Amino acid sequence: MTVQSHPVVDLAGASKTYGDVTALRSADLLIRPGELLAVVGPSGSGKSTMLNIMGTLDRPSSGRVRIAGHDIDALSDRELSALRAGTIGFVFQQFHLSSGVPALDSVADGLLYSGRPRSERRRVAERALRRVGLGHRMYHQPHQLSGGEKQRVAIARAVAGDPPLLLADEPTGALDSRSGAVVMELLHELHESGTTVVVITHDRDIAASLPREVRLKDGKIEHDSSLGAASTALVPEEALR
Ligand SMILES: Nc1ncnc2c1ncn2[C@@H]1O[C@H](COP(=O)(O)OP(=O)(O)OP(=O)(O)O)[C@@H](O)[C@H]1O
Ligand SMILES: [Mg+2]
């Protein structure tokens, strides 16, 4: 079996508690290579918690998490960082770009852990910025970019190393509808080129426009459109494989 044929994300009974708050309750979620899906739900329903667990930024309190075939329980923090660096790109609502840093450096710095020499990092960063339509903004700092452009720099940084999985937490949340549409178009293009893309969104139209929708409520997956009308809780885990 090649790594490609593994699910990209495989959560089984994954839970996360913070003190007496259960942020994620026994989530079962299987994401296959090349999928594009929306994660929706009210504020506080556990969307970011689940994304952080899929992204290995956080370990679950209980349950199993496999990313690209790797059981994350079996990995040290160091091995987990290496898996994350090579496998997962992140995009957040607030862009997370350092002030004063030109776009080209922001993107190139995202490749620091790839082991590539500096000149190559800059070459790859240039290509990524062109890919998101910012070939003419390489040397602009965040305060010289529009919101939509900042988010495109963040996407360029997330995908410069060609990770198979892109996780986006409300990537259009801080944008006007036109810039949001450009960002969504970009995510569709990445999906078409083979990247698996998970998008958290509050926007019903965006969610409805994606091939799969996973809905959270009170930390529980209450609906997964890939499973039809049945509640996930009623589907035995093995039946999903
Ligand atoms: N580090 C933490 N410590 C304590 N409680 C937390 C922590 N992180 C999240 N929570 C709680 O877990 C629940 C789920 O939070 P989460 O951030 O996953 O929600 P969300 O669905 O992403 O919400 P939003 O749409 O507002 O971003 C919330 O009730 C939140 O207060
Ligand atoms: Mg959130």
From TrEMBL:
InterPro entries: AAA+_ATPase, ABC_transporter-like_ATP-bd, ABC_transporter-like_CS, ABC_transpr_LolD-like, MacB-like_ATP-bd, P-loop_NTPase. One of its GO terms (molecular function) is ATP binding. Pfam families: ABC_tran. SUPFAM superfamilies: P-loop containing nucleoside triphosphate hydrolases. It comes from the Bacteria. One of its GO terms (cellular component) is membrane protein complex. Residues 9-239 form the ABC transporter domain. This is ABC transporter ATP-binding protein. The lineage of its organism: Bacteria, Bacillati, Actinomycetota, Actinomycetes, Kitasatosporales.
